Amino acid sequence: MKEYKTYIPVALIILMFLSLIIFHKDIATYISQSKIEQLSANTKKSISDSIAQKYNYHHNGETYDYTFIEFGSTGCHSCRQMEEVMEKIKTEYKGKVNVVFINLMEPESKRFFEYYGVATIPTQILLDRKGKEFFRHTGFYPADELSTHFTMKK
After folding, report:
1. Which residue has the higher pLDDT, 125 or 15?
2. What domains appear along the chain, each with residue ranges and CATH number?
3. Which biological process, per GO, is one annotated for this protein (predicted)?
4. Nearest to 51 by CA among 121, 98, 95, 87
């Protein structure tokens, strides 16, 4: 009987770890939505207006078709890997994609992290020409995979 008492906690830990691996995107989505719901209507409106002013290219006269927002930190390993991806996208899609890095460590960035409900870094968000989100990914995302979204969406 003592043998089973040892295996039960180990089995539960393994099960919990596997659940995190399998459902990590669902968990991140849930946390993101919860963070967004916690914002007041005034805060959402203020940030939404700021985003529209910067990234709605129909209204602000910029010629970009997309905005690639990278949420991260300079101290994060995966975020540093994404720096290469950002440079590649910036070079390959010059004038077509506006590449923006929002650093978690900068106090003024906090409101954008909250508005988009960013729960983990790095997180990539793609906005269309009107400043509307159409794609989101967390973790490292290779440039060639990211590029497919710039050729598909119009």
Report:
1. 125
2. 34-152 (3.40.30.10)
3. cell redox homeostasis
4. 98
Three-state SS letters, 44-62: HHHHHHHHHHHHCHHHHCC
Q: Is the pLDDT at 89 greater than 60, yes or no?
A: yes
Q: What SS3 class is residue 137? A: strand
Output the CA torsion sign for 91, 97, 98, 104. negative
Q: What is the DSSP letter of 106?
A: S
Cα gap 118→108, rounded to integer Å: 15
The torsion defined by the Cα of 90, 93, 98 and 100, in degrees rounded to 10, comes to -30
- Flag whether the pTM goes above 0.90: no
Q: What is the pLDDT of residues 104-137, one digit of tens each?
A: 999 888 888 888 888 889 999 999 998 899 999 9
Helices vs. strands in the chain: H and E counts, helices first: 6, 4
Residues 142 and 151 sit within 8 Å (Cβ to Cβ):
no
